[in-house]
Specification:
Protein name: UDP-N-acetylmuramoyl-tripeptide--D-alanyl-D-alanine ligase
Number of helices: 19
Pfam families: Mur_ligase_C, Mur_ligase_M
Number of domains: 3
Strand order of the largest sheet: 2-3-1-4-5-6-7-8-9
CATH architecture of the largest domain: 3-Layer(aba) Sandwich
Strand content: 15-25%
Helix content: 40-55%
Number of strands: 15
Organism: Fusibacter bizertensis
CATH class of the largest domain: Alpha Beta
CATH superfamily of the largest domain: Mur-like, catalytic domain
InterPro entries: Mur-like_cat_sf, Mur_ligase_C, Mur_ligase_C_dom_sf, Mur_ligase_cen, MurCDEF_CellWall_CoF430Synth
Shape: globular
Largest sheet: 9 strands, mixed
Keywords: ATP-binding, Ligase, Membrane, Nucleotide-binding, Transmembrane, Transmembrane helix
CATH topology of the largest domain: UDP-N-acetylmuramoyl-L-alanine:D-glutamate ligase
């Protein structure tokens, strides 16, 4: 009986320890169960966890005491190896132990404890089957805990939402600017904040807080009666997500930075992406203003309500689409960019400078300019506003490493538009070898192969050496490089990000330039 109890205790403890990784992955998928479960099922057991199965068999199938004791030792060893690997390969983004996560873990532990107690009254072969199933499929506990807790989470969230709505109602003069897009929304949000903070008291959603709960936290924790403007980044993975956010914070101004094939794993079709991003313009407040990036065909084709004012902008000085604002005489260098802003209606021009790199960033700056002018900022004041703009960390920011070589850090989230622009910056950057390290682009649905292959073709034209992370996920990039007859001796396929950087340290030399394009979350490790 004692061995039986110890064995069940080991099963419960090991499974619960594994639940910490399970809930972390669930959090990384934004608590979307339909995204989490397919990935969770892919890897049930790692090779070393065969020790666990051996331990279960020895403890509950054999009747020989020394073998049973050896089985307990095997279970203990499995736990030791698990913790050793977790420590050796720490997560890039740590789990945030929010109240929701703590509640899920508590419910999971209660489920395990109740099951273990019931198992004490069953024969050993039943426990063996239970042990063989529950540990590899520990993620099922997170599914059950999330399902059980859903009514509680709903009540808690509704309380927070209502409290946020109360705070918004106490600031009736607050101007809300909604920012969405497949790419560039965080950069545009930061551009807007930097520019507008010079003349207004501005609050923006921090980092990538772009869900309803992220907006709720921002409002409840930071909104003050003195704030004049709230810049709300709006993310979406499913149809209706942007409408929900518009219903919540009621934006007066809206800007869609871009529409592209992002999150197709959840949107399923590109038409759904267009529909969802367009919800921002559709659900603006009466007499609101839509800032339309007419360089993006999908954005300029969005039909606006009659009571919504349109402000159109373009970074293309050759366009025939009559934007309200456009730029000309653009110069992009290693230290930043300069351009001439043109106001179409008046013909006024102004030479502006920014430390931001890449043409796609100029589109973000132009959006910020158009919104600033609509809010009453003077034309002449724009020079001061744009000069202070600096790159957001991991979004095409630069840094020198030991005064030896330069890193172009575009690791946050690669996309088809931004990756091409980053390669353009790399190609024109002064330096010796041009090196790229990338795991490719993700969440592109059935377009993933074609877009990553196109990325590989572009890499071949811009880089002297290529480090690809992950053999399977970079196969399309490899095909693109092969199509351009890129020399195989200048390609290294790394097994992990760590392996990729080890190779980089071997080959990098004085005054080389290294582009880090994307950094996959732990959920995409091969």
């Amino acid at each position: 009986m004692l061995l039986k109890a110890l064995g069940l205790l080991m099963i419960t403890g090991l499974t619960f320890i594994k639940n910490f990784s399970d809930v972390h992955k669930f959090q990384q998928y934004g608590y979307y169960m339909n995204q989490y479960l397919p990935k969770a099922r892919q890897k049930l057991l790692k090779p070393y966890e065969l020790i666990y199965l051996l331990g279960i068999i020895l403890v509950f199938v054999t009747d020989v005491l020394p073998l049973q004791i050896f089985g307990l030792a095997a279970l203990t060893l499995n736990g030791y190896f698990y913790l050793l690997i977790v420590k050796a390969y720490p997560a890039k983004k740590k789990c945030v132990y929010t109240p929701r996560v703590k509640r899920m873990l508590t419910t999971s532990l209660i489920l395990l404890a109740i099951t273990a107690f019931g198992m004490m009254f069953l024969p050993n072969w039943s426990i063996a089957i239970y042990g063989v199933v529950i540990y590899p499929m520990s993620f099922v506990l997170i599914y059950l805990a999330n399902t059980i807790n859903k009514p509680i989470e709903g009540m808690v969230n509704n309380y927070y939402y209502k409290d946020a709505l109360r705070l918004l109602s106490e600031n009736p003069n607050l101007t809300v600017i909604g920012v969405t897009g497949s790419y560039g929304k965080t950069s545009t949000k930061n551009v807007l904040y930097t520019m507008l903070s010079k003349d207004f008291n501005v609050l923006m959603t921090p980092e990538s807080f772009n869900t309803k709960m992220g907006l709720t936290r921002t409002i409840r924790e930071h909104l003050k009666p003195t704030h004049q403007i709230l810049i709300a980044e709006m993310g979406a993975k499913e149809v209706g997500d942007i409408k929900e956010l518009c219903d919540f914070v009621k934006p007066h101004y809206g800007v869609i930075t871009s529409i592209g094939p992002q999150h197709l794993d959840t949107f399923k079709t590109f038409e759904n992406v267009i529909l969802t991003k367009g919800e921002l313009f559709k659900y603006l407040q009466p007499n609101g203003t839509a800032f339309v990036n007419i360089d993006d065909e999908n954005i300029r084709n969005i039909k606006l309500r009659d009571d919504v004012t349109s402000v159109r902008y373009s970074v293309n000085d050759q366009t025939t689409l009559t934007p309200d604002y456009y730029i000309e005489a653009t110069s992009i260098g290693a230290s930043g960019s300069s351009f001439t802003l043109v106001q179409n209606k008046t013909g006024k021009k102004l030479r502006l400078n920014t430390k931001l790199l890449g043409r796609h960033n100029l589109s973000n700056v132009l959006a910020g300019i158009a919104i600033s002018l609509s809010l009453g900022v003077s034309f002449e004041r724009l020079g001061t506003m744009t000069a202070d703009l600096t790159p957001v960390k991991h979004r095409l920011s630069t840094r020198r490493v030991n005064d030896q070589y330069t890193i172009l850090d575009d690791a946050f989230n690669s996309n088809p538009v931004g990756s091409k622009m980053a390669l353009e910056v790399l190609k024109n950057f002064e330096g010796n070898k041009k090196i790229v390290i990338t795991p490719g682009m993700i969440e592109l649905g059935d377009q993933a192969y074609d877009l990553n292959k196109s990325f590989g073709i572009a890499i071949a034209d811009a880089c002297d050496y290529v480090i690809l992370v992950g053999k399977k996920q970079t196969a399309p990039i490899q095909d693109g490089l092969a199509e351009k007859a890129y020399p195989s001796q200048r390609i290294y396929i790394a097994s992990s990000i760590k392996d990729g950087f080890n190779k980089l340290h071997e080959i990098v030399a004085l005054n080389d330039v290294v582009l880090i394009e994307n950094d996959l979350p732990d959920t995409f490790n091969e």
